[in-house]
Specification:
Layout lengths: L2 H6 L3 E2 L4 H10 L4 H7 L4 E3 L3 E4 L18 H14 L7 E3 H11 L10 H16 L3 E5 L2 H6 L6 E4 L20 H5 L4 H11 L3 E2 L5 H9 L1 H12 L1 E5 L3 E6 L13 H19 L14 H15 L5 H5 L2 H10 L1
Antiparallel strand pairs: 1-3, 2-3, 4-6, 5-6, 7-9, 8-9
Helix pairs in contact: 4-5, 4-6, 9-10
Length: 328
């Protein structure tokens, strides 16, 4: 096995890949030191799946579920997990049972399933739930439901849903933010989690102690990442960048997608504007812009240099373009 097998998969289902499941199960001890000693992650190994709970030290927007495009989908997913709590393994249910349950428990608005937008949100959630193995489709097709709200589909619970959400030591009612739930003040764990899950770790006000920890322990950190992942750690004045020296990670930046190329070009324009004096670089090598200023900047880049972008990025509306770049 490779440690990236655990990183790249949200959950590893034995039914989907028995060879990978048993490879990890048989060789996991090779990585237990990093999992426990440096990351303090919880590893769940069951008869039908393996899951590494990859908890970030500082959650970022890009760490969300990439299949979801709206808050409503996240809420639907949470309600689905609650719905499945009372379902045993292989217990069946129909889509209309779920839609009625969501309608009764969605508090933000009265869900109207005659609206295709609501049905499309639910279909995205269901497909994600099938992909990660918490439900199976037994009969029917939810895509037909997107065209006709009277269509039904038969599903069954796999019993895995109860392991999807992380359990916390603190009560939800006592938490004012996610930081109260994480309750993780160990500098070492935060450093390794940030380096593992972020493309770059900056030296920021408020977390200087973590940057100082990296500077003091850079040799150990480099050894741990080299031994377990074959990654190299590059340390700069105001940032630390994990460099992936193999091809085991699928989603990296930059990649060959048009969005990645656009972001690199925008970064080039930022540097050009800094050199010309149009933008001011702070002492920590960052450029501060308001949201509106950033939006105007990237729209201007597309207007003047968009011929180098993909046709899709050239043709989409300004707001869609802003959303795409902000995600990347």
């Amino acid at each position: 096995m490779r440690f990236t097998d655990l990183l790249e998969n949200y959950i590893i289902l034995k039914d989907n890949d028995k060879e990978l499941y048993y490879d990890i199960k048989d060789n996991i001890n090779d990585y237990m030191n990093m999992i426990k000693e440096y990351l303090s992650y919880k590893l769940i190994i069951k008869d039908n799946f393996i899951k590494l709970e990859k908890v970030p030290a500082n959650p970022q927007g890009f760490m969300g579920i990439k299949e979801f495009d709206s808050i409503k989908e996240y809420v639907f997913f949470m309600i689905l997990l609650i719905f499945l709590e009372d379902k045993n393994n292989e217990e069946q249910f129909i889509l209309s049972n779920l839609t009625e349950y969501i309608k009764q428990n969605y508090s933000e608005e009265k869900i109207d399933w005659t609206k295709q937008k609501n049905r499309r949100c639910l279909i995205n959630v269901i497909k994600f739930a099938i992909d990660i193995g918490i439900i199976k489709r037994n009969d029917g097709d939810e895509e037909l439901y997107s065209k006709d709200e009277t269509r039904d589909v038969l599903y069954e619970s796999t019993g895995i849903s109860r392991y999807i959400l992380r359990s916390f030591d603190n009560e939800l009612d006592n938490a004012n933010s996610y930081k109260d739930l994480l309750n993780e003040e160990n500098t070492k764990y935060n450093v390794y989690r940030n380096l593992l899950l972020n493309p770059v770790v900056y030296n920021k006000i408020g977390v200087e102690h973590e940057y100082d920890y990296i500077v003091r322990n850079k040799n150990e950190i480099k050894d741990v990442f080299e031994e377990n992942l074959e990654w190299d750690i590059h340390l700069y004045k105001n940032a630390i960048i994990p460099i992936i020296t193999n091809n085991e990670v699928k989603d990296v930046f930059p990649n060959k997608k048009g969005e990645s190329a656009a972001v690199l070009f925008i970064n080039k324009e930022v540097r050009r504007n800094i050199n010309s004096g149009n933008l001011k670089k702070e002492d920590n090598d960052t450029v501060v812009m308001s949201n509106s200023e950033f939006d105007e900047f990237i729209i201007e880049v597309r207007r003047t240099h968009g011929h180098g972008f993909t046709k899709t990025l050239r043709d989409v509306s300004e707001q869609v373009f802003i959303n795409i770049i902000s995600k990347n």
